[in-house]
Amino acid sequence: MSQYNKVTPELIEQFRQIAPNRVSVNGDINDDFTHDEMPIYGKACPEVVIEATSTEEVAAVMKLCYENGIPVTPRGAGTGLTGGAVALCGGVILSTTKMNKILGYDKENLNVRVQAGVLLNDLAEDAAKQGLLYPPDPGEKFATLGGNVANNAGGMRAVKYGTTRDYVRAMTVVLPTGEIVRMGASVSKSSSGYSLLHLMIGSEGTLGIITELTLKLIPQPKEVVSLIVLFENLEECIAAVPQIMLAHLQPQALEFMEREIVISSEAYLGKSVFPQEFEGSQVNAYLLITFDGENADQLDEIIEKASEVVLEAGALDVLVADTPALKKDAWAARSSFLEAIEAQTKLLDECDVVVPTSRIAEYLTYIKSIEADYGFEVKSFGHAGDGNLHIYTCSNDMELEEFKSQVHDFMKKAYAKATEFGGLISGEHGIGHGKQAYLSEMAGPVNMRLMKEIKSVFDPKAILNPGKVCVKL
Q1: What pLDDT score does 259 carry?
Q2: Phi and psi at residue 50, to the nearest 5°
Q3: Is pLDDT at 204 greater than 90 in this prediction?
Q4: Which residues form the FAD-binding PCMH-type domain (predicted)?
Q5: 75 SS3 class
Q6: Across 313-324, average pLDDT
Q7: Pairing with 267, which of 6, 353, 440, 469 sits 20 to 30 Å away (CA)?
Q8: Which residues pair with residue 230 across a beta bridge?
Q9: For the residues 268-275, what does the mean pLDDT come to?
Q10: Which DSSP category does 6 fall into?
């Protein structure tokens, strides 16, 4: 950290000229800017927080910081789970949340231009009014779109529509030097040199700061229905997933959850949606499946076929959530899993491994087999359709350092098993600084060298989001 300089009063005055009334220092900095949504990775206070409103302001701040050797941490809504938006080296946090304008739709080409600070929820609601859908659907609806792109957020509709990466057509980026560049174009194909656009997607704010985006949209599906499928055990629940896919049913979303997490979520919301028993049998696992289509008749056929498939695979029962209220309640329970865990847990850590869908059940069986070796509880749920699993370690009575030590050992085993199964250590939450050690284990020395060399090309002074992804402090 000695490579960086401190922010001087003279620099603060220059920042205030660039962003009048939007510069906070010292005791005026809100505590929210010291951490993200996973506080187990620690807190760090920046020297300055600047809330930019335009690409030009971001560029002016970056130019000053580059010239003066000041570290800069880009930050959206701060909803990340790996410490990626924490200012480990002090310096400047550059917030994009006030860059929140939807700049315009191109309906003929099914695109929308937005500033990076627009919230996912706001675009989803606005696009729906235009009869359009932005398919990426991460669980955190109040994250910024810039943050989603920086982490290549996945979400629940990835099984049918893909991840955030598949919907980014173009972007405006401010480099660490303060230079402004345009990457991509509002077209659907490109074979025009190296894809700097796709290099920026998922780079977690370490290569440049995304300020504007052109995103692909699709027509809003006319009809949507959800199914709640009950199982007596997790193995049969997960084993039904490939059968659904092989039946050409094309679910929009396909989620699995265990009994304990459902009970926690419903208690948190104060509303019961998922049955816990069926004809004398305890329900221990669920699939929550959404299908979309052009009309009700098409969906009726899909529901009938899907019900046959899951019942043959061992499901106890199938409930059809075909009213707006029931669909809303079912997905509200699913979307509240993390909030429920946070509300009921003092110490918490999480991994979002991704494994081949054919090995989900085997992987979760392994996780359950090692849980007894530790003093914390493990809660699991995730995206059954694409193999992205969310595994939470939770404790209310362990000492912090003992919890961290045990979790580290648990995570090493969990990530090693995911790698052994042909998976990866993160499907959508990224690396930040909390998962760095595990990345190097999985990627190996050559891939890590390539990542570090890419970082040095974009950021020769290493001032942008230092200590994240591939570069340790």
Answers
A1: 92
A2: -120, 125
A3: yes
A4: 41-220
A5: strand
A6: 91
A7: 353
A8: 286, 317
A9: 89
A10: P
